TrEMBL record:
Residues 30-140 form the DUF6542 domain. It comes from Solicola gregarius. Keywords: Membrane, Transmembrane, Transmembrane helix. The chain crosses the membrane at residues 21-44, 50-69, 81-98, 118-140. This is DUF6542 domain-containing protein. The keyword Transmembrane helix applies.
């Protein structure tokens, strides 16, 4: 078992995995991940569906897990800001991907963004609560180690 630990500790990927990310790196990584998820979701189905929501929850939790202990504020406030920024971008670039029931074809960017937030409210609530829970868990564990 110690040989595996030695290989992981000395390999470039092992050293990279041992580092936590700063707030700026968390934002950039989450934005890049959500851009890829959004592109795949729209490319395959033409809309933002359950795949988008599930991946949003995973990105929210992963951000809280990857953050440096001094940068835990960022993943704590990131989920709503990330969802709204993705939905605004989609409403501008591919407005037909936000297709909520009762939404007029002539709806503008603001209307489509609000409809998208309402449509993905469950993913937002679950992702944000799990991210906040993860942040709280990491803070408590950090205090116990001292």
């Amino acid at each position: 078992m110690s040989s595996v630990h030695t290989v992981l500790r000395t390999s470039p990927l092992g050293r990279l995995a041992a580092r936590d990310l700063s707030g700026a790196q968390i934002c950039a990584g989450a934005a890049a991940a959500m851009a890829a998820v959004t592109a795949v979701s729209i490319g395959l189905t033409g809309e933002l569906g359950i795949f988008f929501g599930g991946c949003f929850v995973l990105v929210s939790v992963s951000s809280a897990l990857a953050a440096d202990i001094r940068s835990l504020f960022t993943p704590g406030v990131l989920p709503p800001l990330l969802l709204v920024s993705v939905l605004v971008t989609v409403a501008v670039v591919a407005p037909q991907a936000i297709d909520a029931p009762g939404l007029a074809e002539s709806a503008g960017v603001t209307q489509r963004t609000i409809a998208g937030v309402v449509q993905h409210a469950t993913a937002l609530i679950v992702g944000h609560l799990l991210a906040l829970g993860t942040v709280a868990y990491r803070i408590v564990n950090s205090a116990e180690r001292r």
